[in-house]
Amino acid sequence: MLEGIKKLLKNRYFYIGIIVAAITAAMLLKLVNLQIVNGSVLDYYASRGYYSVRTIEAQRGKIYDRNGKLIAYNRTGYNVQVVKNSENSDWAKRDQIYYNLLKIFEKNGDSIENLLKKYITPEIEFGVLIDDDDDPDEVDMRKNWIRYVIEDQFDIKYEDIDQLKTARDVFSYFRKELFEISEEYDETDAYNIMAIRFTILMNGGISNTTPQVIATDVSEETMSEIETRHLEFPGVSTKEVYFRQYNNPQTIAHILGYVRAMSEEEYEEIYKESGYSKNEIVGKEGIEKAAEKYLRGTKGSETIYIDKDGRELGEVSKTPAVAGEDIYLTIDLDLQEAAIKAMEKHIARIRSEKDDEKNFGDCVGGAIVVMDINSGDVLASVSYPDFDPNIFLAPSSDAEAQQAITDLYTDTEKSASLNRATQGLYAPGSVFKPIVAIAALEEGKITKDTTCYCNREGVYANFRLTCLGRHGNLDLIQAIVKSCNIYFYDVGVETGISVIDQYAKAFGLGENTGIEISEYQGARSNEETMRDKEIDLTHVWSAADTAQTSIGQLYCQFTPMQMARYAAALGNGGNLITPHLIQKRVAADGTVVETEKQSSKIEGLSEENLAIIKEGMIRVVGDTSSSIYSYFKDFGFDIAGKTGTPETGLESQNQSSNGTFICYAPADNPEIAVSVVLEHGVWGTNAAILASDVLAEYFGTNDSEDISYIIDYGETDIIA
Amino acid sequence: MSHSDRYDLDRSKRPNMLLKFDYILFAAVIGLAVMGIIILPSAMLGYKESVIKSTFIVQIGGFIVGIIIAIALSCVDYIVFRHMAIFFYGANILAMLLVYSPLGVERYGSRNWIDLGITTYQPAELMKLATIIMVALCLEDMKLDNGRTLYNVLRIGFFFALPLGLVLLQKDLGTALVFVFFFVIMLFVAGLKMRYFAVTAVAALIAFPFVWKFALNDARRSRILTFFDPSLDPIGAGFQARLAKYAIGSGQISGKGLGNGPINNAGQLPVKDSDFVFSVVCEELGFIGASIIIFLFFVLLIKMIGISRRSSDYFGQYLAIGIFAMFLFHFLENIGMNIGIMPITGVPLPFISKGGSSLITNFFSIGVMLSISARRKSGGFFGESS
To answer: End-to-end distance of chain A based on CA atoms, in angstroms?
Structure first.
């Protein structure tokens, strides 16, 4: 007997048998526990409901201007959403529910979310994403799309797809084979039901836990009707959600940017890691994008008890959402509006002065930047033409808004989506001359009294370069005032390109400014840029290139923001400041974070030399002989400015030159720096006149009657 | 030395199949498959009618084809598999690699299916059997070939590690665990010294962090973590586990009746035609239906232990215990995760879960089992062993 047991214990099969027996016993015990001991309790839960955790949206931070004027905020609206439950578990039942919902939407003028219409329109034609011609590529694309839609629906044969030629074929096939929508519905209703189901399918399919949105931002009437008739709509609920709203955003469009649902790629590449969910609304451009992480806030969550129909029975626990931080911009909306009005006014004026010699009436847009000269606060930043960010907030069913979005990105003539203040790249023209003067002065190549003789033209490395006038003998100050090219050709060549380039860089030209929103770096005119741009690869940098660079031409490509920063550095004693648009952030709990002001002293600039430049620039504006004298005479203080009329190289094709202007004011103890660029603005003086209006608004010297100059542009064709 | 010297079975004589056929084992399998067909319409509640219809036809078809394959294989001497082992194994390795070809399909976050046009097929299904055959073969050689231990150890290691590596590359944790499980059981029965198991256990503990980091995807990790702390993922895996618990409990003794389970009707159970089919059984057929399935598996598994024990040769012995271990793991893991005693990983319940190809594969293994059984030595369960 003992032998037998010993033998048994040595037999490994014995242990395996024990394991099987133990597992079986454990399972039966657990089942007894669940089904018999706790059966009635669990049955109660099963038939009554269960816990579900849902996220609570955080309210996006508001955006104000520097004086607390509200620009962006949120309003509450309602989405209609659906989950699957025991009362709508089959397709036919849900179709009936969708049909009844559609009738409510129709009555109240609400529209459904419709991803189908880009493929098949409500008129049962192929939508924009599918061409119905017989081009083999198009046919393939169409087939691939159909395959994609029916993926994993294994009862559909791929051979069938080849038979589908017209949009109606596809629609009928989907209706019959894929969605099995009853014949009882007429075509319009069947299409709308299919659109709802297609949209749900593309967003991951109907689910018990994650509601699928059928319609966004429905009317109050629809919301209350669905809620009062909720017994007819099992699984359907309305949800209060936030919608972004903008107050008169057009004037500040490029700075504000806009919000929109993220794309699939953006989700995968950028937002997934930061805990966003698919299709969430995010900032796409401007401050909305730049400050996304501050604006978005923190989502909350709530555990709710829901019955088997998906209806809430009560809240168990809740972590409230934390609203995003409010952003206060450095922008002064009044100044911004005045600047944009001045821009419109002067564009209209310049166009009306068309002479077909220099002015071809083609002035279309430009940029204005007004910057606090010490802090770098951007007080106004205009890019014109502008656009209305509200078009991005409109529902996808708003055809007009969708068309406006398409136009915005396809109208290359206007390029209204471009933020010319930070992304527009322009040759500065004579505005660049103070850089050359400073470089030459600092390097000891010239003094204030160095003179030069202007005979209207000069030859540099076998290139004949001209001046706009025959200025005769002039010194540095006179050269700045008269904007004599010959003087700066000579001084530039004498100073050398590398020194000029070094000073241009020190003043932040062709360098990123560090502003919060998207900006382009542009380029300084030097050998490096030449190699990138010059088609003639054998070309060697010559004195003629240095000469042209010295008057801000050739390869110079700067943004108006860079030019304003440069003007500020000229005026504030040589401090290069980082411009910024966010003044402060205010968190939901009241914590305030002020943007840190950043600036750095430009090395090797002497006060005396800056004073010489200042003297010249004061006289550019203030000399009684100056053509812009009359526009600046009433400020009661000096203003230091410089005009530029950079050639675009297209003058021979009847296009006007650009107009540029930089200034800081008052010249003594300056407060602000301004830069203006007018595309095809004909003369720098036009940009200067525009700047005078902006200065007048800032310094409050424009009396109220002056407002009356605002022309009614309704009749004026500003934009060609 | 020829192969035939190693066997005490007289292979020149065919066994009397009517007498030697393992009726009990076969009955248990038929019983399980019938339970599967009974529950299938319920498990697909809420699906499109055309899908239910076609799946049902596939399942019945798989059932019939499976029975034919099993009976046919029982008549074939399993020595065939010894001779064909390397080809069978090689073909399956190739199929495993096909998932990386354009034929490969991604499902549920794992790329481990291939599209055969008419149906999709998971190559890991037959790979399990092929690996068991290969390991059984090697173990037998090792037993008989005392002089070449190192060679045989390396051979086993290679033939086992290759498919396991491929499965891990496909991030199919459930299947990888099946591999490890049957390998351990096979070594155990082959008489590997207990201290080696101890060493391996320590090695596994050390390897764990690496497997955790590199071999598992986020979904798997969260499922395992959630098993230990359901609050980590209250709407994901923890939610599934809780719903399964409600569904099972609500069945009580006799169940709600086919098609009447409230949780099933609400469409709340995930993958309820496969991973969570047992919850549907519990909800609708109650404790009675659930314990019938557990009982049938118990009979099946105990019969398999007996077949291994009484096998005429080492190959049959190891092959049988390998197949046993494969079924045991599926049984333990699938029912275990349904009732909440195991973490959730996606393994189907053999013969019950939906899927024609896996049904046929399972019947194939049963056919091999029946073949070994028909060529067994006579004797009782704890009788004389070789």
So the answer is: 110
Of B268, B287, B331, the CB nearest to A208: B268
The CA distance from B47 to B35, in Å, is 20
Q: Is the pLDDT of residue B283 over 60?
A: yes
Supply the DSSP string of B146-201, one letter for each residue: GGGHHHHHHHHHHHHHHHHHHHHHTT-HHHHHHHHHHHHHHHHHTT--HHHHHHHH
Residue matched to tokens 């045991």: B328
Which pLDDT value is given to residue B344? 77
Q: How far is the CA of A308 from the CAs of A631, B261, B273, in angstroms?
A: 76, 12, 20
Compare all CA atoms of chain A with the CA of B302 and give the residue at the minimum distance. A17
- Determine, yes or no, domain membership for B380: no
Strand partners, A118: none
φ and ψ at B227, to 5 degrees?
-60, -40
Q: Which amino acid is at B220?
A: R
Among A593, A418, A656, A391, residue whose Cα is nearest residue A517 = A418
pLDDT at A209: 67
A447 contacts chain B (CB < 8 A): no
User: Which residue in the set B50, B243, B298 is minimally distant from A24, CB to CB?
Assistant: B298
Structure token pair of residue A297: 């806030």
Residue carrying the six token digits 């301004």: A674
Structural domain span for residue B111: 17-374
Paired tokens of A89: 């578990």
Q: Please determine, for residue A208, whether its predicted confidence score (pLDDT) is greater than 60.
A: yes
State the CB neighbour count (10 A cutoff) for residue A661: 34
Among A7, A34, A201, A210, the strongest candidate for a mutation testing the B interface, having the largest count of B CBs within 10 A, is A34
Q: Confirm whether B270 is domain-assigned.
A: yes
Q: Which CATH class is domain A330-397+415-422+563-595+606-720?
A: alpha beta
Looking at the domain assignment, is residue B322 inside a domain?
yes
Number of neighbouring beta carbons within 10 Å of residue B271: 16
Within 8 A by CB and 6+ apart from A307, the residues are: A48, A49, A313
Partner residues linked to A126 by β-bridges: A120
A635 CB neighbour count, 10 Å cutoff: 17
Are the C-beta atoms of residues A223 and A238 closer than 8 Å to each other? yes
- Which residues 24-43 in chain A show a CB within 8 A of chain B? 24, 26-28, 30-32, 34-36, 38-43
| Distance from the first to the final alpha carbon of chain B | 21
Task: State how far the Cα of A657 lies from the Cα of A649, in Å rounded to an integer.
Answer: 8
Q: Under 8 Å CB-to-CB from A246, ≥6 apart: which residues?
A: A71, A72, A256, A258, A389, A390, A393
Which DSSP state fits A232?
A: G
Nearest to A39 among B242, B252, B339 (CB): B252
**Residue boundaries of the structural domains of chain A:** 2-37, 75-248+305-328, 330-397+415-422+563-595+606-720
Residue A49 belongs to what H/E stretch? strand A49-56
Q: Specify if B9 maps to a domain.
A: no
From residue A622, how far is each of A470, A564, A626, A689, B150 by CA, in Å? 22, 20, 7, 13, 99
Mean pLDDT value of segment A579-584: 93
Burial B324-334, CB ≥16 within 10 A → b, else e: bbbbbbbbbbb
ipTM of the complex: 0.89
CB contact, 8 Å: B189 with chain A? yes
Residues of A whose CB is below 8 A from B282: 31, 34-35
- Window 285-324 of B: residues touching A by CB (8 A cutoff) are 286-287, 290-291, 294, 297-298, 301-302, 305, 308-309, 321, 324
Domain count for chain B, please give it.
Answer: 1
B286, B247 Cβ separation under 8 angstroms: no
Mean pLDDT in residue range A677-684: 90
pLDDT at A60 exceeding the cut of 50? yes
